[in-house]
Write a structure and sequence with these properties.
The complex is a heterodimer of chains A (about 325) and B (about 270).
Chain A: H1 2-29, H2 34-39, H3 45-55, H4 61-73, H5 87-122, H6 127-141, H7 144-158, H8 175-209, H9 212-219, H10 224-261, H11 267-276, H12 280-308, H13 310-317
Chain B: E1 3-13, E2 18-28, E3 32-36, H1 43-51, E4 59-66, E5 69-70, H2 76-82, E6 87-90, H3 94-97, H4 104-118, H5 125-138, H6 144-149, H7 157-170, E7 175-179, H8 187-204, E8 207-212, H9 215-221, E9 224-229, E10 232-238, H10 239-244, H11 249-268
Parallel strand pairs in B: 3-8, 3-9, 6-7, 7-8
Antiparallel strand pairs in B: 1-2, 1-4, 4-5, 9-10
Helix pairs in contact in B: 4-5, 4-7, 5-7, 7-8
The chains are: A mainly alpha (about 325), B alpha/beta (about 270).
């Protein structure tokens, strides 16, 4: 297990490295110099040259690349072209919005989708079991921003229960407002996510319900519910965990849209702003950290599956 | 009514096909009964109907009386009380019949604990463990200490089937159903498992419903047999008589084919 983990971590770092290179190359493939964007349309050649010197875009690409990799190796993501603030600092400020948003939406969606998915499978022959799977099917088709706007319309504009968007300037220094401004975005993500998650939970549970080992347990006197609890859930969890990993990653990346709808100062808006301003270090930083989080999520999901399923552990030993 | 199991005019059907019809047989307490038929003849379905474990969508009519309880139409709660207590089943494929994620010891402990509770006995961990070890010994599994910690994929097919038998015996049922218990195993292991099942049911006074397509195996095991084809019984009677002087054409063909097969094997060897 330890050797497997070490091997996976090496692969993770290599993937991150490759992603960093691809990112650098892709951004430099864009025509024009980011310094132009920095000083504006009416700038004189001298101003442009000064800006180029400041952000280092006057250096040859190879030199820029070496500096970039060297900085990365020291966990330094550079400084923003625009604000000259260290990228990592800005990201950690933004993550303090995006991470709680994603994680609480993720937890909430599990709380909704796992019990309902199991119920939909166990009661698939009843009308409410069917209704549940129809609802989840419809939920998958709903676009995130549309649900966000709908929730704002109902809870912010009509009921006036919650703010329609924004985040307090003092952040968590103003806890009540920080939390209330998170409620609708969290709900938006969680509802969309639980729709698709529920479908996976239902499918996994149905598969387990039809399995031979559940029939064995019942043939030896275990009740249907008892057999499902004792043997079914663990077996159904294995495929669901890999879906959970993917869902968590997509939610994190999909937060871009939700943060726009609710004007939250998270990673998503930092990325969009960075693209508008051609602020390469910020774009690179956001994408590298996102890649790292996605890779880590996959790693954790894999690990968890191995803990649950001894057959996977055996393969790993070989 | 001394019979443990009485099946009368059993009919199993889906909305558009009749799978089993006009099926009647009975098994006395402690008797070994064999059900013979090719795949698709309805023998496994019959055994599932006996335990009330038919897949939803299958309709059962007629009468199945097990230990004095009518199974057909009985609510699930009554069936749960019957399964494990009156009847336990060993299925064909021991790899999928066991939970892949649970150590074998814990899987045997499940029915053991239920039975101890039913009998009002102590269900402490030590008591359950002792019983599990005794069962492993009873099904002649070597190295039980290692085995209780092993997962199904870590032991051989024959060992898995022995574990499945131990789980069924853990229930102390009055009727053991063995549904093609040797089909997934190699020939040497088959013979061992058959011997194990017959000696155990005799020793413990358990009635046996042995299902197989293999005439030779059923001949070894059963005192009385019934031959099924296309969901109907074509012949039944004492095993010796049916297998040596078959009356029905289909049974005659089966017996002749089995003889030719054996002769061919011997000719080769």
């Amino acid at each position: 297990m330890l050797r497997y983990m070490a091997r996976r971590l090496v692969i993770l770092l290599l993937s991150l490295f490759v992603a960093a290179i691809v990112l650098f190359v892709l951004l430099r493939l864009l025509p024009g110099d980011p310094a132009n964007a920095l000083v504006g349309v009416g700038a004189t050649p001298e101003q442009i040259a000064a800006a180029q010197a400041q952000i280092g875009s006057d250096q040859p690409l190879a030199a820029q690349f070496v500096t970039y990799l060297g900085d990365l190796a020291r966990f330094d993501l550079g400084k923003s072209f625009v604000s000259r603030a260290p990228v990592l600092e800005e990201i950690s400020r933004r993550l303090s919005v995006t991470l709680p948003l994603t994680l609480s939406a993720f937890l909430l969606s599990m709380l909704i989708a796992i019990p309902l998915g199991i119920l939909a499978a166990v009661k698939s022959d009843r009308w409410y079991g069917l209704l549940l799977s129809v609802v989840s099917q419809v939920g998958i088709a709903v676009p995130v921003f549309w649900l966000g706007v709908l929730l704002v319309y109902v809870f912010a504009l009509n009921l006036r229960l919650l703010p329609s968007g924004g985040f307090p300037l003092r952040g968590y220094g103003d806890p009540a407002r920080a939390v209330t401004s998170m409620v609708l975005p969290v709900l938006t993500i969680a509802l969309i996510m639980s729709a698709s998650l529920m479908r996976y939970v239902r499918a996994a549970t149905l598969e387990v319900l039809g399995s031979d080992f559940l029939r064995t347990a019942r043939a030896l006197g275990e009740s249907r519910t008892g057999a499902l609890m004792r043997h079914g859930l663990r077996n159904a969890a294995v495929p669901v965990i890999s879906v959970l990993g993917i869902e968590l990653s997509t939610t994190f990346l999909g937060a871009v849209v939700v943060e726009q709808v609710f004007s939250l100062p998270g990673m998503g808006s930092m990325l969009l702003l960075g693209i508008q301003q051609r602020d390469y270090p910020n774009i690179q930083g956001v994408l590298i950290i996102s890649t790292l989080l996605v890779l880590l999520t996959g790693f954790l999901a894999d690990l968890l599956q191995r803990v649950l399923d001894p057959r996977l552990r055996k393969e790993a030993r070989r | 009514m001394s019979d443990l199991l009485t099946v009368r005019d059993l009919r199993l059907s889906t909305p558009d096909t009749v799978l089993v019809q006009d099926l009647s047989f009975s098994i006395a307490a402690g008797e070994r009964f064999g059900l013979i038929g090719e795949s698709g003849s309805g023998k496994s379905l019959t055994s599932l109907a006996v335990t009330g474990l038919l897949a939803p969508g299958l309709r059962a009519e007629g009468s199945v009386e097990l230990a004095g309880t009518q199974v057909i139409g009985a609510p699930e709660r009554r069936l749960v009380g019957l399964r494990g207590n009156a009847v336990a089943t060993v299925f064909q494929e021991p790899l999928t019949a066991l939970d892949p994620l649970m150590p074998l010891g814990r899987q045997i402990a499940g029915p053991v604990r239920r039975r101890l509770k039913r009998e009002g006995a102590e269900t402490s961990r030590a008591a359950v463990r002792d019983e599990v070890m005794a069962l492993l010994e009873q099904v002649r599994l070597p190295d039980p200490v290692r085995l209780i910690g092993a997962y199904p994929h870590e032991v051989s097919g024959g060992q898995r089937q022995r574990v499945a038998i131990a789980m069924a015996l853990a229930c102390r049922p009055r009727l053991l159903i063995a549904d093609e218990p040797t089909t997934a195993l190699d020939v040497t292991t088959q013979a061992e498992i058959v011997r194990l099942i017959t000696s155990l049911v005799d020793e413990l006074g358990i009635a046996l419903l042995f299902i197989s397509h293999d005439l030779a195996v059923v001949g070894q095991v059963a005192e009385r047999v019934m031959v099924m084809r296309h969901g109907r019984a074509v012949e039944s009677g004492p095993a010796l008589q049916v297998l040596t002087q078959p009356q029905d054409d289909y049974t005659r063909n089966l017996v002749a084919a089995a003889r030719r097969f054996d002769a061919a094997l011997e000719g080769q060897g």
